[in-house]
């Protein structure tokens, strides 16, 4: 029987993994971005999904080979589109800045990733909107969107706290019109991961029929969706490697100013750690979704809220908010409280829905 409280806990663990995965990358030395992103990504998109699915599910290859071709096509396609969204996130920050860019891109990602699957399958109007527990879950989504926007206001306020010369440097490429279009594209494409997972529902049923524990029936779907994401990222990193002529770095590192070289072995270990940690966000996501009952669609909101909560806390741990004004910190803490409240409200809505509330 689904346990929404346990589901929220799993989503929090997944959010922590997503917020933490980049920390090992910060210690990689002597490699260009495209090199360490590609090597870590191979663990994220290929190695970890297939290894963990092989260990935790029954007859993985049999289940995937039995999946209909159209399901394969949708999962891979949505994964590919999600990859495009991730690659344009940096452009969103470049043209709009941290505050406005985060608010628009992540709000759209949370909104469309949560609501579009039930709207498309018709359950939104028949099972969610008319019911009390469905309305509570939607209120939780509203709190999440409000929290994202308030955190975004905190990011904008942080920019205003900077000295004038640094503020001009941060926003020197600010372009509202171009930035809005990029942010909308980023948010819509990033939400496609949720569509890919929803498209894989038949594969979850096949995995369950093969005898897989209900907690892990979503792992084969991750293998499919992440293949599409891998394709997008590998092509982009390959382009950058050719353009910047950095391919030789996979067997060596740039020398430091004193002539010494960072440890290439340690770079590989750090990239592997970062990649597997990144994958764990969706490993626990599928576990959390399995516990949310009929309102599994709300998992995407819980996922987004948890990521932002723990990313903000990492920001404090890494002193990224050091020197911020009281106004900025007020925005950040208010946004965090709204996001935490959203996870509690959504969990409660799922709980009373599972208990038969109407």
Shape verdict: globular
Q: What fraction, in percent, of the residue positions are helical?
A: over 70%
* Largest sheet: number of strands, sense, barrel closure: none
Radius of gyration computed on alpha carbons = 21 Å
Structure summary, number of beta strands? 0
Strand content: under 5%
In terms of structural class, how would the helical and strand content be classed?
Answer: mainly alpha
Mean pLDDT: 85
Concise summary:
This protein has 358 residues and is mainly α. It contains 15 helices and no strands. The chain has one domain.
Topology:
Layout: H1 4-20, H2 22-25, H3 33-56, H4 60-66, H5 69-121, H6 123-128, H7 132-161, H8 164-170, H9 176-190, H10 192-199, H11 201-209, H12 219-244, H13 264-289, H14 299-317, H15 326-354
Helix pairs in contact: 1-13, 1-14, 1-15, 3-12, 3-13, 5-7, 5-9, 5-10, 5-12, 5-14, 7-14, 7-15, 14-15
């Amino acid at each position: 029987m689904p346990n929404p409280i346990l589901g929220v806990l799993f989503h929090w663990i997944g959010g922590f993994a997503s917020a933490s995965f980049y920390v090992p990358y910060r210690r990689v030395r002597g490699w260009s971005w495209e090199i360490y992103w590609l090597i870590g990504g191979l663990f994220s998109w290929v190695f970890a999904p297939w290894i963990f699915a092989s260990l935790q599910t029954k007859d993985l290859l049999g289940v995937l080979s039995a999946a209909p071709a159209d399901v394969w096509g949708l999962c891979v396609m949505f994964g590919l589109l999600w990859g495009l969204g991730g690659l344009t996130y940096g452009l969103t920050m470049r043209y709009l800045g941290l505050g406005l860019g985060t608010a628009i891109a992540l709000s759209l990602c949370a909104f469309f990733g949560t609501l579009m699957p039930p709207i498309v399958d018709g359950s939104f109007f028949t099972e969610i909107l008319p019911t009390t527990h469905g309305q509570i879950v939607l209120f939780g989504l509203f709190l999440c969107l409000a929290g994202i926007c308030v955190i975004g206001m905190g990011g904008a306020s942080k920019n205003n706290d900077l000295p004038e010369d640094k503020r001009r440097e941060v926003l020197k490429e600010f372009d509202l019109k171009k930035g809005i279009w990029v942010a909308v594209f980023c948010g819509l494409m990033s939400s496609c991961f949720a569509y890919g997972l929803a498209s894989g529902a038949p594969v979850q049923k096949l995995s369950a029929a093969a005898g897989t524990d209900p907690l892990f029936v979503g792992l084969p779907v991750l293998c499919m969706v992440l293949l599409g994401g891998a394709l997008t990222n590998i092509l982009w990193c390959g382009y950058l490697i050719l353009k910047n002529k950095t391919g030789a770095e996979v067997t060596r590192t740039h020398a430091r100013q004193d002539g010494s070289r960072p440890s290439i072995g340690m770079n590989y270990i750090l990239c592997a750690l970062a990649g597997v940690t990144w994958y764990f966000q969706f490993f626990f996501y599928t576990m959390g979704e399995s516990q949310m009952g009929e309102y599994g669609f709300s998992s995407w909101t819980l996922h987004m809220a948890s990521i932002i909560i723990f990313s903000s806390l990492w920001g404090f741990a890494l002193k990224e908010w050091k020197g911020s004004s009281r106004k900025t910190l007020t925005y950040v803490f208010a946004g965090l409280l709204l996001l935490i409240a959203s996870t509690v409200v959504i969990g409660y809505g799922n709980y009373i829905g599972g208990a038969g509330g109407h």
